[in-house]
Prior knowledge:
Layout: H1 11-27
Amino acid sequence: MRVTLSDRTPPAKVKDLWYQVRKKAGDIRGDLPAGIIGPNFNDEYGDVYSALYMLSARGSGWPS
């Protein structure tokens, strides 16, 4: 999943867009391989900064 907000994204829409991202990321939780922790969100702050780290190895089955 890749999310890119444009510099032209109206500030009034940013909060709802992040809500949609969290909701959609939560929706795929059941499709992730066993043992995956997350996705988790800490959105107790007024400003939102994001970082996503993903590791993959041969034979893991995901992503193929």
